[in-house]
Amino acid sequence: MTQGEVASKLEWSLSKVNRIEIGDVTVSNTDLQALLRLFEVDDQNAIETLSGHCRSARQRGWWDEPAYRSLLRPTTIELMQFQSQAATIFSFHSAIFPGVIQTRAYAEHVLAFWAGELSDEERAARLDVRMKWRTHVFSQPRPPRHVLVVDESIVGREVGGPHVMIGQLRELLPSGHDPNIDVRVLPLRETAFLAAAAPFMLVEMGDGDAILYRESYLSDELVDHPAVIKRYREVVEQVLDTALSVEASARLIEACVAALVSSLDRR
């Protein structure tokens, strides 16, 4: 039985089922009894063993430590939990490069933009997590396949000056990042899609379940409604059909790097 089926039968959210499965939350006795009934468990020894597990301390990922939990959005922590179990992750970005592939210098300049909304401590925590996360997620025995599609405007939008941007663009090339990441560019000519585009991430769990992450200027959300997931899977296919191939994207990025290097040489 998949997470989605369990959530549907018990009228729980997929997020709740996921948090229980990975040990992020302690299962209440009421929830345990509901699960036992669902799976038709009536062996008394098994029930007692499971009840004991409910009383034991829950396991947490390093990102869920108190030092981070107090400084990160709950949605961010929950998203990381889903990502750590994912089979495939697709994300589309129209403003900045995603955190999983940001260099430290680029990330520092991006986070500086939020100085009015985030304290120094919060920005430092986000930077620390961002740098640790990319190492963590791709060092697992079975790391997810991560497909990143970025709007071409990001490639040409200079953040932090030419030196920072050159380092960041080189990170996008196949030689600069983990082999489980594919970077593809959505050409500027595809304006029809961009008219309605907003950053999103679709995390596929490998068992038919998925979770959608959407973000805007000051808010973000996780969505597991089947109809919404279905629609975004269609959007993913549309984006992939429109984006440049990995190879063509790399050539475009290399050309941008060359242009920036040339501009520095002329100064």
From TrEMBL:
Q: Which organism is it from?
A: Virgisporangium ochraceum
What Pfam families does the record point to? DUF5753, HTH_31
GO MF, one example: DNA binding
Kindly give the InterPro entries that the UniProt entry links to this protein.
Cro/C1-type_HTH, DUF5753, Lambda_DNA-bd_dom_sf
Which protein, by its recorded name, is this? Transcriptional regulator
Domain HTH cro/C1-type: residue ranges: 1-47
